[in-house]
């Protein structure tokens, strides 16, 4: 089984494939693209006003949001995890996970099985998340959601160092994972599952407070992680039961935040003033920080 006969030709990859393939057949039926309560919210912040649109269209943290999460995470890696990540990253990334953290968004229309991996579709009238109820695609295929994707790519990366995962000709094809792509998918999906708004709040914050320099946002969040939120970090990292990752916790937090903050007091076509932006920005910052801390914790558990 080759990449070509599973996905079709994929000539625009900016980096060489390092470790075999990761086809949807090797994917324990995991995919996901829209967190209904999380991703269907589109916020456009312009000057002193923001505009909210409730829409089924999928949006994301944007490049800056995903870059922020991955930069926070990479700075928190153990020596073993940092070494593994460095080896798996494409050379063009120059050991900067953040620079390729939006890769999964760019390949959605070429890896046509992947769009449902970016979201969870929860019932419109509920502010709760249940894996068995909600983690499925539009055809009802279970495990095809962002929580399932995080579980899947975590499992793939746990095979790191296993000869069966490194294109061993004698190994069964089902174990031949592309661990570079697994790393990039996992890193991106960890951002998606922590999303509550799209990138407009982040872009507005960058412009107002950091001179449109995302590094300023990263630095500010890292300082908060070591100071203001220091007593919460261990709880963020902990999954319990020696689990390498716990996306159900992340998704449950996200849907609660969406109901408590993103949608509260808002109707479709509402014009949201500065008070909305300023009151919701701390929640956005918190979710970005949690995503970075948890991505690092997951990678540290995977790679030791």
UniProtKB/TrEMBL annotation:
Keyword Metal-binding: yes
EC number: 3.1.30.1
Superkingdom classification of source: Eukaryota
Pfam family, one: S1-P1_nuclease
Catalytic activity: Endonucleolytic cleavage to 5'-phosphomononucleotide and 5'-phosphooligonucleotide end-products
Key word Phosphoprotein present: no
Keywords: Disulfide bond, Endonuclease, Glycoprotein, Hydrolase, Metal-binding, Nuclease
SUPFAM superfamilies, alphabetized: Phospholipase C/P1 nuclease (SSF48537)
A molecular function GO annotation: single-stranded DNA endodeoxyribonuclease activity
Enzyme class, spelled out: hydrolase
GO-annotated biological processes: DNA catabolic process
Family that this chain belongs to: Belongs to the nuclease type I family.
PANTHER family: ENDONUCLEASE 2, ENDONUCLEASE 4
Protein name, entry field: Aspergillus nuclease S1
């Amino acid at each position: 089984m080759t990449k070509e006969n599973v996905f079709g030709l994929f000539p625009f990859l900016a980096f060489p494939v390092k470790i075999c393939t990761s086809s949807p057949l090797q994917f324990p039926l995991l995919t996901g693209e829209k967190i209904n309560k999380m991703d269907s919210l589109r916020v456009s912040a312009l000057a002193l006003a923001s505009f909210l649109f409730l829409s089924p269209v999928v949006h994301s943290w944007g490049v800056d949001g995903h870059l922020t999460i991955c930069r926070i995470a990479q700075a928190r890696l153990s020596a073993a995890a940092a070494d593994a990540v460095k080896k798996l990253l494409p050379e063009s990334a120059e050991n900067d996970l953040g620079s390729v953290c939006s890769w999964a968004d760019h390949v959605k229309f070429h890896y046509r099985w992947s769009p449902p991996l970016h979201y969870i579709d929860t019932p419109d009238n509920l502010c709760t998340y249940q894996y068995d109820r909600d983690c499925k695609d539009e055809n009802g295929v279970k495990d095809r959601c962002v929580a399932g994707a995080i579980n899947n790519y975590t499992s793939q990366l746990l095979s790191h160092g296993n000869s069966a995962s490194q294109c061993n000709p004698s190994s069964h094809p089902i174990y031949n994972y592309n661990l570079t792509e697994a790393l990039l998918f996992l890193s991106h999906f960890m951002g998606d599952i922590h999303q509550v708004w799209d990138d407009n709040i982040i872009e507005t914050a960058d412009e107002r407070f950091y001179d449109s320099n995302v590094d300023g946002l990263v630095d500010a969040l890292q300082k908060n992680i070591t100071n203001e939120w220091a007593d919460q970090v261990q709880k963020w990292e902990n999954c319990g039961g020696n689990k390498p990752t716990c996306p159900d916790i992340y998704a449950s937090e996200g849907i609660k935040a969406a109901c408590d903050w993103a949608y509260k007091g808002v109707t479709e076509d509402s014009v949201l003033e500065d008070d909305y932006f300023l009151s919701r920005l701390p929640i956005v910052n918190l979710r970005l920080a949690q995503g970075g801390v948890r991505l690092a914790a997951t990678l540290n558990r995977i790679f030791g």
